[in-house]
Amino acid sequence: MIETVHLRKEFGTKVAVHDLNLTVPLGRVTGLLGLNGAGKTTTIKILATLLRQTSGTVSVGGLDPVRQPRAVRRRINLIAGGERMVYARMTGRENLWYFGQLYDVPGRVLRPRVAELLDLVGLAEAADTRVERYSRGMAQRLSIARGLVNDPDYLLLDEPTLGLDAPIARDLRRVVAALAERGKGVLLTSHYLAEVEQLCAHVYVIGDGRHLAEGTPAELVAQTGCHRTVRVAVVELTPRVEAAARAFAPAVRIAPGGVVELSGPGDVAGALTSTIIEAGGALKGLEIAEPTLEDAILALNDRPAAVIA
Ligand SMILES: Nc1ncnc2c1ncn2[C@@H]1O[C@H](COP(=O)(O)OP(=O)(O)OP(=O)(O)O)[C@@H](O)[C@H]1O
């Protein structure tokens, strides 16, 4: 596994990462979340041997990136979204062959690996087409394959779906999930929290370089005390219906279009709709929205770090 203990990185007087303890095991996707400037990219660069920490220790499968950078680089790969990491004038197959040679992968190993990777990312049919003719999603999938050409144990994915259209991002998520199933350890940063919720078995949340919280997405939602929201749409919001809804709970809000909204613990949907019906309201719709990871992250970032730590 990858492990950081008391990791700290300073840039002059700026402390980008404070005392971060992080574990990335094999065989699952681990998330690293935080608002802009939280320290995610700095952490990933330290793991990838691109930056050296100010203090604390890092282990990548038992290896030290500072003392054994070459050995670490053989076991990891880094893919950053939004960056062009493949050559447009070469075919997909040529790109993978070229990067494999840069990693000194022997030809007899590389040949079947390239074919397997093209298959894994769904580019087998386009293998011999130049990348300049690929769609953006195809090029992004080729970047993932490029990141696997040295058969790393760990893959560091920094915003892999940045700027991709929804169907393309969905394809890419399938590939990422398949990698963890094949035993790779994946560390993922993403601003798309639904993606993190779907893929990550464990998530670390950092804010301003500090550890704020960690757990499964569901645990994070539970820890932050975010509640489900019940929305009842009524055909006509008469003063009587409105008064009854407001009397039901002080936290009731009336949203545009006459929608009665209430967030809170427990199951209030039944009681709230009955109250509205008893006051003469006719129902148009009912929605129960479970709290999401996004709600949890926003709640965590609203709290002072000292309170959470
Ligand atoms: N080379 C550098 N010199 C000085 N400060 C830096 C340097 N690199 C990063 N920082 C600062 O360290 C902090 C953490 O930056 P980092 O890029 O790690 O955040 P991030 O969580 O990846 O943010 P984003 O989501 O915007 O990519 C920021 O305040 C940033 O300005």
From TrEMBL:
<dbReference type="InterPro" id="IPR050763">
    <property type="entry name" value="ABC_transporter_ATP-binding"/>
</dbReference>
<dbReference type="Pfam" id="PF00005">
    <property type="entry name" value="ABC_tran"/>
</dbReference>
<keyword id="KW-0547">Nucleotide-binding</keyword>
<keyword id="KW-0067">ATP-binding</keyword>
<comment type="similarity">
    <text>Belongs to the ABC transporter superfamily.</text>
</comment>
<keyword id="KW-0813">Transport</keyword>
<feature type="domain" description="ABC transporter">
    <location>
        <begin position="2"/>
        <end position="233"/>
    </location>
</feature>
<dbReference type="GO" id="GO:0005524">
    <property type="term" value="F:ATP binding"/>
</dbReference>
<dbReference type="InterPro" id="IPR027417">
    <property type="entry name" value="P-loop_NTPase"/>
</dbReference>
<keyword id="KW-0046">Antibiotic resistance</keyword>
<dbReference type="InterPro" id="IPR003439">
    <property type="entry name" value="ABC_transporter-like_ATP-bd"/>
</dbReference>
<protein>
    <submittedName>
        <fullName>ABC transporter ATP-binding protein</fullName>
    </submittedName>
</protein>
<dbReference type="InterPro" id="IPR003593">
    <property type="entry name" value="AAA+_ATPase"/>
</dbReference>
